[in-house]
Write a structure and sequence with these properties.
By secondary structure, the chain is an all-alpha fold. It is built from one helix and no strands. The chain starts with a helix and ends with a helix.
């Protein structure tokens, strides 16, 4: 009788081990699947980060070019105002001569 009880306990332990192995295999598959998904997501995010870095560099270059153009425009405006002032001064002198 004792041998039968031992055999029953052994069968129960074997059954528990088989169930545990089955759960572990399913968990391993789930983890492998999740790992693959996360690796793909990581690749996509790295690609996007590279694109954004290139876009940022381009925008910085454009910003610098625009600042240079703004400085050039400011110089142009100052020159134009200087010319206008000189012309106004010359016109005022001509008006003085006509008196």
């Amino acid at each position: 009788m004792e041998q039968m009880e031992s055999l029953v306990r052994l069968e129960e332990r074997v059954q528990q081990a088989v169930e545990l192995i089955g759960r572990l295999k399913m968990e391993k598959q789930r983890l492998e699947s999740e790992t693959a998904r996360l690796l793909e997501l990581n690749r996509e995010l790295e690609t996007r980060a590279g694109s954004l870095a290139r876009e940022k560099d381009e925008l910085l270059r454009e910003g610098l070019a625009l600042r240079e153009r703004e400085e050039e425009w400011s110089r142009f405006e100052r020159d134009r105002e200087e010319i206008r002032s000189r012309i106004d001064s010359m016109l005022a002198k001509f008006e003085e001569l006509e008196i």
